[in-house]
Design a protein that fits this description.
The complex is a heterodimer. Chain A is mostly beta strands. Chain A is about 5% helix and about 45% strand. Chain A has one domain: Sandwich (Immunoglobulin-like). In chain A, strands 2, 4, 5, 9, 10 and 12 form a 6-stranded antiparallel sheet that branches. In chain A, strands 11-6-13 form a 3-stranded antiparallel sheet, with no helix packed on it. In chain A, strands 7-8 form a two-stranded antiparallel ribbon. In chain A, strand 9 and strand 10 form a beta hairpin. Chain B has 2 domains: about 150 residues, Immunoglobulins (Immunoglobulin-like, Sandwich), CATH 2.60.40; about 110 residues, Immunoglobulins (Immunoglobulin-like, Sandwich), CATH 2.60.40. Helix content of chain B is about 0%, strand content about 55%. Chain B is built from no helices and 22 strands. In chain B, strands 2, 5, 7, 8, 10, 12 and 13 form a 7-stranded mixed sheet that branches. In chain B, strands 1, 3, 4, 6, 9 and 11 form a 6-stranded antiparallel sheet that branches. A 4-stranded antiparallel sheet of chain B has the order 18-17-21-22, with no helix packed on it. Chain B is globular, with a radius of gyration of 22 Å. Classes of the chains: A mainly beta, B mainly beta. Chains A and B meet through strand 1, helix 1, strand 2, strand 3 and strand 5 of A and strand 1, strand 2, strand 3, strand 4 and strand 5 of B.
Chain lengths: ~160, ~280
């Protein structure tokens, strides 16, 4: 990589300095007059998915019984992003028995949607979109199958978070 | 200027003599899950404040769904992971650059009938003797979990949804010192490559990116100019800035060798400029 700094003339430097945070001075009262028209919508197609029991020898990876449809519609300022993440609250648990949540992963279809592996430590990106648009995708989850899993009814909760950082 | 359009949702308290709303980009977000749909506005608030200043922001929620919804609001820590993914956790004392302890919400629980609108007041009060820096927090709006299938058994994943409204509170006039420390091309499976710039901010200020990326073919022909997304660069942090070489509407780059020049404006006197090359192989 080659990098270099370009020192601009006074006029351009002044433009560069006109960043958002310096755009307003210390004024006691601001007149509020503009209208915000940006809009975004996230839709999740289901409240839960299930991984059926299967023989680990014949089904080393268990697909969920259904894919999760996700629709993200957004209107934002030019260049601004809307981001969707997912964070697991904990591992899959059945009483004291545990299946690490990192055994759950997903593939995704749809522009801007990305595949990933679930985590309880850090939110994982599901998608990020710049500018306005209507994005729909589908997430197909799978669980790594293993003979070591104790028999039980396991559950875990994952939280989708929509934001515009 | 996009920031100006956001003032519509801004309320200044009478005590906020030294508190200036410097900008508020407010994409409105509606969250929907299994028939539930709640709109939250605004999603981002940028404040310039002095120590001891107070600012109150009204955040509006509207239930666009057909069911009554319970919304629980709280303030979380907010930061970005290295790849720029927003991260949130329960507020904890001593978290660097955190404004979470300064923010009070009223009410913190509300019930919205279908079609109803309600407001949550988020009051930010900067303590005395707060050092100059850019602080931040997130107001989290969590929606009651959907009804789970009582017959579910085996191994189940249940999903919940929430919307995070980010508050940036810059106290005083902290310096930003952003540098472009790395630039590389990263292949995207099944897609066009991305250009990934690594930005490091050693200052205590916060800024956002803007600028352009120019893709030039051999011989000097400009092929494409791409706008750099507006992403936050937090104080004393390093993050990736990912710029796609093609939008979904763009045609793929033809096979060949390209020069890529990135010009990032972070509000400093000098633009950050990086250059790299991209090889697009011919598909066999």
């Amino acid at each position: 990589m080659k990098t270099r700094n370009l020192v601009l003339g006074i006029a351009l430097a002044a433009m560069a300095a006109a960043q958002p945070l310096s755009a307003a001075d210390t004024t006691a009262n601001l007149t509020v007059g503009a209208t915000v028209s940006a809009t975004a919508k996230l839709s999740l197609g289901a409240a839960s998915i299930s991984f059926p029991d299967a023989d680990p020898d014949t089904t080393p990876s268990i697909p969920a019984t259904a894919a999760l449809s996700v629709v993200a519609k957004g209107k934002t300022g030019t260049g601004s992003n809307i981001t969707l993440t997912m964070l697991a609250g904990d591992d899959l648990k059945s009483g004291s028995d545990t299946i690490a949540i990192t055994n759950v992963s997903w593939t995704a279809s749809g522009a801007g949607f990305v595949a990933g592996t679930m985590s309880k430590a850090a939110a994982q990106s599901v998608g990020s979109w710049a500018n306005s648009g209507n994005r729909s995708g589908s997430m197909s989850f799978s669980l790594v199958n293993n003979w070591t899993y104790a028999v039980g009814s396991y559950s875990a909760t994952a939280v989708f978070t929509l934001t515009a950082p | 200027m996009a920031f100006r359009s956001a003032f519509a949702y801004l309320l200044l308290s009478s005590r906020a003599v030294a508190c200036v709303a410097a900008g508020l980009i407010a994409p409105t977000v509606a969250h929907a899950q299994a028939g539930l749909s709640v709109e939250v506005s605004p999603l981002r608030l940028e404040l310039k404040m002095a120590a001891k200043a107070t600012h109150t922001q009204v955040i509006t929620l509207r239930n666009d769904g057909k069911e009554t919804v319970t919304v629980r609001a709280r303030v979380d820590e907010y930061w970005l992971s290295g790849d720029g993914t927003p991260q949130f956790k329960f507020a904890a004392p001593g978290t660097p650059f955190s404004a979470a302890a300064w923010i009070r919400l009223n009410p913190s629980v509300l019930t919205l009938a279908p079609g109803a609108t309600a407001s949550v007041r988020a009051t930010t009060a900067v303590p005395a003797d707060t050092p100059d820096a850019a602080y931040r927090a997130a107001v989290m709006f969590e929606f009651e979990p959907p009804e789970a299938d009582p017959r579910a058994a085996g191994k189940d994943m249940r999903f919940r949804g929430r919307v995070a409204a980010i508050i940036y509170a810059t106290v005083g006039a902290p310096r930003t010192a952003v540098d472009l420390v790395d630039l590389q091309v990263r292949q995207v499976p099944g897609g066009q490559p991305d250009v990934v710039a690594m930005l490091t901010n050693t200052g205590r200020g916060y800024t956002r990116t803007r600028g352009t990326m120019v893709i030039t073919a051999e011989g000097g022909r400009k092929v494409r100019e791409v706008a750099i997304p507006s992403v936050p660069v937090l104080p004393e942090s390093t993050r990736e800035l990912r710029v796609p070489t093609a939008s979904p509407q763009d045609a793929p780059l033809e096979p060949g060798r390209y020069t890529i020049e990135l010009r990032v404006d972070v509000g400093q006197a000098a633009l950050l400029i990086g250059e790299t090359t991209l090889e697009v192989a011919r598909v066999k």
